[in-house]
Amino acid sequence: MKTLHKTLLISGLTALLSMPASADDIDDAIATATKHYKAGELSQAIAQLDYASTLIRQEKGEQVKKVFPAPPSGWKADEASSDVAGAAMFGGGINASRAYYNDNSRIEIQLMMDSPMLQAFSMMLSNPSMIAMSGGKLTKIQGIQAVQKIDGDSVEIQFVTPSGAMVTLSGDKAAQSTLLELANAIDLKKL
Questions:
Q1: pTM to 2 decimals?
Q2: Is the separation of the CB atoms in 168 and 109 below 8 Å?
Q3: Is residue 162's pLDDT more than 90?
Q4: Domains of the chain
């Protein structure tokens, strides 16, 4: 019976976290955290604040999906998706992606933001010696320093936006011009 209750609780929480949050849900979680904090119930306060921050990340994740460009002429694209990691997992953060394809090639754009892991990536991407050692070459995307790597038939471009999001585009070398076109069409102002 205990296992059934646990399973139902986990299923319920998973369903709640997959639904879009309302401002009331976020406000309620923060108010409940404050109540627990004032009562000296610190574990419960932390849990409520983690819940509120996860709801806020989910809301931001939905907004981030709007930065992806429309598919170029002759290309199709999957719907953009976003995943949110809570603070307990990898320090939190938002990941979003969208795949573009035609009969011959495939390109994927991935965004990572609001994660403590980005600091290490940012330092690496800003160090020309590290870039050269990894086989990359410097290029510019929307005026931002980026790293381009070509490995056989694959090409990858990575850069960190002024807002701190890391953008990775990867695809077939044959579609390199389309990959660059998509990189320059990402709406960085919405990040």
A1: 0.73
A2: yes
A3: no
A4: 2-63 (no CATH), 68-190 (3.40.1000.10)
